[in-house]
Structure formats: C-alpha cells, structure tokens
Amino acid sequence: MAAIGFKTAKCKDCYKCVRICPVKAIHTKDEHALYVADECVLCGRCLEACPQDAIISISDIQKAKAFIQEGCKTVISLDPAYLGVFGDTENGTGQLREALYQLGFSHIRETAEGAVHVTKAYERLIKAGEMNNIITTSCAAINDLVERYYPEMIPYMAPVVSPMIAHGMMLKEEFGPDVKVVYIGSCTAKGREALRDRCRGEFIDAVIDFQELRKWLKEAGIDPAQCEPRQRRGKNPLINGLYGVSGGILSSVEADKGFGKYEQLYVDGIDSVKELFTCIANGEINNCFIEVASCVGGCINGPLAGGQESDRFKARIYTNQKIIREFPQDMDKMKESIILRKDFRQSAQAVAIPTEEEIQEALRKDGKDSIEKQLNCGACGFKTCRDKAIALCQHKEQLNLCIPYMYQQARSTAEVILSVTPNLIFTVDEQLRIQEFNNAAEVMFNISADKAHGMFLGNIIDPGDFASVFRDKRSIMNKKVSYEKYGMITMQNIIYIREQNCALGILRNITSEEKIRRQHDRMRMEAMDIAQKVIDKQMMVAQEIAGLLGETTAETKVTLTKMRDSIFYEGDDNL
Ligand code: SF4
Ligand code: SF4
Ligand code: SF4
Fold first, then answer.
1. Residue 173: pLDDT band by 50, 70, 90 thresholds?
2. What's the mean pLDDT in 442-465?
3. Which of 55, 397, 398, 401 to mutate to test the pocket of ligand 1 (most atoms within 8 A of CB)?
4. Which residues, in sequence order, are bridge partners of residue 476?
5. Nearest ligand by distance to the CA of 40
6. Which atom from ligand 2 is nearest to the alpha carbon of 4?
C-alpha cells in the first residue's frame, strides 16, 4: 500500500526535509538524513519539499493494473478532491469518468457517497451532545498524528471512519466481497489507513494517486478532455463533494442538520493543527465542532494532486463551481451490517522524555550554554533551541545542525587562521575595493582592516594583476612580485572566486628567503671564481711540468741516440 520511500543515493543531505517534517520523523545521523517510517505520519510535506526527488511515494498502481488485466471486477472510489484537481476538464466529472472506464475499470463511484453517511454519523454525535469538543477529519495523516503524538486528543476525536473506509464498506456490500476497490486521491497517507489493523485491507484493495493517474492516462493515450461525458451511476452526493476542500465537512453538516450547541471551527495545515491541539489540551477551546486537515486548503492541495502551484487555487474555484450546495435527501439508508465506528488508540512509540539536566547538557554541547546564545531562530526546523536539545537527547538530531552555530564556528575558525597566518591575505571586489584584510596585511601595509575596508587597492599596491584576474576570470598563481615601497618580495596567488565575483590575494612574503638565496648565489659566484683561478693556476703548472718533461725527454732521446750510434758504429772502426 502507498507509503514513502527514501532514495539514499539521491539524497544530497541538504536537510530541507529534516527542517520541514512536522513530527521530526527524519533524523540526522552521521551527517545524513535518515527517514524513520515508524515515526512518520505520512503528511507528504517532505515529498513536496525534497529538491532532489530523493523522497518518493510508493503506490499500488501495478496492483490496480493487475486487477484489470486479471479480469477482476474493479471499482473506483474517486476522492472528492478530483472535482478541483481535474476541474479543468471542460465537462468536468463526466469526462474523467469516461476516461477511467476506458482504462478498464468496471465501475466509477465517488468517495463522497461514503461522506454522506459519515456526515450523518457526525450529526448523531452533535445530537447526543456528550462530547466536549468534536474533532472531525477525513485526513489519515491527522488521525495518525493524534494516535502517535497527541493521544490526549483521543477523547475529542469523532469515533467515525473516514469517507474512504465508509465507501469501501459500502462498495463491498453492494458488489460482493470479491470486488476490488481502488481508491484514487491526492494523499500519501491513505494506503496506510487502508491497511491499518482495524481495516486490514478488507475494504480498500489498492490506493493510487492523481499524479500517477495522469501518467497512466497519458501512457494509455487517453485525454479526459477529449472524452464524451459519462453519466454518474451512484447517487449524487451533492454538498458532500466538498469534503476535498477545507471547511467541506462543516458545509455538509450545516446543509443538513446544523451544529446544535456547538461552535464551528476549521483548521488546516499540520502546524496549525498542532497548535490547536495544544489549545484544546490547555482547556482554551470547548464545545466546538472542529474540522481539521493536514494540508492547507484540504485534499485538493494534497501532496500527490499533481499540477502546478497555481492549480491549487484554481482547484478550489473549480470545486465551488461544480458543487450543488444541498444535502442529498434520497441517499440509501446505510445497511445495519456496516459499522462506521472507529476507535482511536494510542500508538505513539514511547520516546523517553529527557531530564532537565540532560536537556541543559545537550544545550551546552550545542553551544547554547546561555540564554543569549539560544537564538530560537527556527532555522534547524525546531521552534526553539530547547526543542532541538530535546531531539538531541532522543537521538533524533546530531550536534551542529544549528545554522547560526555552524556559521559562527566556521567564522571563528576562519578568523583564527586569518589572524595567525604570516601570509598577507585580502579580498577585493570587481571595483578593486578591499573587502577583507588580515592581520599580516595590516602590519605590512601599516593600515588597519577597518580603514582598508572599501579602500581602492591601488592606494596600497599596484592593482594590475588583480584587474587582469577580473578581466580574464582566471587566477594567477605563483608569481614573484617585488614591492620596493614596502621592501618586500612576495610569491603571490590571486584566486578568482566565481561564485562571489571577487579575487582573493594570498601574498607570501619571501623577502628573507630571497635575501638568503641571493647570498647563496653570491657565495656560489665567489666559489666559482676561486675555483677558476685554481684551475688556471693548475693548468699553468701542468703546462710548465709538461714543458720540462718535454725538454728532458728530448735531451734523453738525443743522449740515448748518441749512445746507440756510438755502440753501433764502434765495430766499423775495427774494419
Ligand atoms: S530534502 Fe531530499 S536531498 Fe535534502 S536531505 Fe531530505 S532527502 Fe536529502
Ligand atoms: S511524510 Fe510528513 S511526517 Fe513523514 S517524514 Fe515526510 S514530512 Fe515527516
Ligand atoms: S539557534 Fe540553532 S538550535 Fe536554536 S532554533 Fe536556531 S538553528 Fe535551531
């Protein structure tokens, strides 16, 4: 049955869903959003809010298609919100009915037929006058909210099933237990309602939503606007068709028997409903017949209604145009075998309420150890820092998911780095006006950060490189630049920051390194000079030695030659 799915791989951890969830059923764990189904009331707000489509609705569309393919008798229970959601169909309801028949459904009926009998059940409660306040709703998310989070409201809840369940019971009675009932609406919570233990899927066999229905019709090549209008089979529920719009229950009761001793009130939007519950718990509201809904405007604005934002307003106009503001007097009596009573039961998970010491400790750990630091800005999704601390104690939240705190932390870390670094760091805007100016820059240029802020960079240094960074939108890295006025040589990086259209200058003062390098160069030159002289001298000595060696060799050669010749010719003299 329809519920919510969470695609972790698609999630970018922006925490929008964490902030928006009215019951904090999406936790933060290890810096990731974590959906906890047991705590979710299926209001669908996260589904609409997630910019990454990481939260999806899981529905029974395949099941509904299978019923048709298998040849089951399949009856549609069409939520009254369709009057507004499909209101742009020229001939309205009749054309959509025909389109649904073309998809293969056996009968198209309206959930508002069930609403007629639900209205009658409310009227009996009004007549009995035994309840202090009577809270009525056809909203499954609100029913879940009461049972999980506001069990103290159970005595005020009208013990009546929703029109969907009432209609499911009626259709099973009319067509027999084997008929398949498919409910179509705009809600994320109806699937769970159909399946809950008290219904066990007995009355509703599948739940699909308007968004999917539109897709299905498109795939099947059926355009409701081109269909011939088809007559309604069941009886017209008239004003009960307003159940899809906020105030619709009140209008239906008023059109029939009225409110007796009760005042009337309708409250829509889950945050407002939570406030209402607090007021009732405080005894501030009494003898009131109250209609509540999770979605602002009612089911016509349900999370799965589909369409554009502006369609939400049009939906109300379309509904009002089509509704006949009379209570049907010709409806069949409800069979006695059909029991519309619903008993609410507490199903809230027992979440430990932390002690005051634990709350204070969580506040301290979250950097909120004084009242001044508790900004109660609501940016984290909790109304107050204390509420956030309670969630921390309940392990629903992680530390540091506090925007002002994170900003402050990041800011102070950056400030520490900027203040202790020996590098000169400053940023300039496109007009080359100084925006940031760190301590090292203050010292080198002998100007305070306050004075430097907004000053033209050219008043301090040659801004040529910065200007070309803006012109070319390209950083200049590792360029050696000498600033004689300040007796400084720098290795500078000028980084273009596209997102902020500014340039960040990081000037590393390499004056001392340069001095040492030059000294080394000088020493090297001197050493080379000395070495050259030694070489030259050695060459001279070598040449002299070679000369002497040459002379001696020649003399030796002459002497030895003479000796040989004298020995050789010695015999000839004897001849
Ligand atoms: S809103 Fe979507 S992307 Fe952002 S944390 Fe929630 S699931 Fe993830
Ligand atoms: S459906 Fe509603 S209650 Fe459930 S997680 Fe989303 S925002 Fe929270
Ligand atoms: S100051 Fe932080 S913890 Fe307090 S409400 Fe704002 S974001 Fe939440």
1. very high
2. 94
3. 55
4. 494
5. 2
6. 1
Q: How do beta strands 74-78 and 55-58 pair?
A: unpaired
At residue 533, the pLDDT reads 86
* CB contact at 8 A, 278 and 254: no
Concatenated DSSP letters of 72-132 = --EEEEE-TTHHHHTTTSTTTHHHHHHHHHHHT-SEEEETHHHHHHHHHHHHHHHHH---S
**Confidence check: pLDDT of 236 > 70:** yes
Q: Sort strands 488-497 and 502-509 into parallel, antiparallel or unpaired.
A: antiparallel
Q: Is the pLDDT of residue 441 over 90?
A: yes
CA of 4 to the centre of ligand 2 (A): 8
Measuring CA to CA, how many Å separate 315 from each of 91, 119, 284, 573? 15, 23, 34, 150
Domain boundaries, the chain: 1-58, 59-322, 350-420, 422-509
Atom of ligand 3 nearest to the CA of 384: 5
Q: What is the token pair recorded at 63? A: 């099941």
CATH topology of domain 422-509: Beta-Lactamase (3.30.450)
* pLDDT digit string, tens, across residues 458-495: 999 999 999 999 999 999 999 999 999 999 999 999 99
Q: How far apart are CA 122 and CA 133, in angstroms?
A: 12
Given its phi and psi angles, is residue 493 left (phi above 0), alpha (psi -120 to 50 degrees) or beta? beta
Between CA 185 and CA 200, with CA 141 as vertex, the angle to 5 degrees is 75
Segment 541-554 shows an average pLDDT of 80
Band (pLDDT 50/70/90 cuts) for residue 378 is confident
Q: What is the pLDDT of residues 191-205, one digit of tens each?
A: 889 887 566 678 999
Average pLDDT taken over every residue of the chain: 90
Q: Which ligand is nearest to the CA of 373?
A: 3
Cβ atoms 43, 24 nearer than 8 A: no
Query: What CATH topology corresponds to 1-58?
Result: Alpha-Beta Plaits (3.30.70)
Describe the crossing of helices 112-128 and 163-175 by its angle, rounded to 10 degrees. 120
Separation CA 333–CA 3 (nearest Å)? 34
Q: Tens digit of pLDDT for each residue in 251-309?
A: 999 999 999 999 999 999 999 999 999 999 999 999 999 999 999 999 999 999 987 76
The bridge status of strand 263-268 relative to strand 288-293 is parallel
Burial 332-356 (b: 16+ CB within 10 A, else e): eebeeeeebebebeeeeeeeeebee
Q: Does residue 59 contact residue 208 with C-beta atoms inside 8 Å?
A: yes
pLDDT digits (tens, 9 = 90+) for 564-574: 777 666 545 44
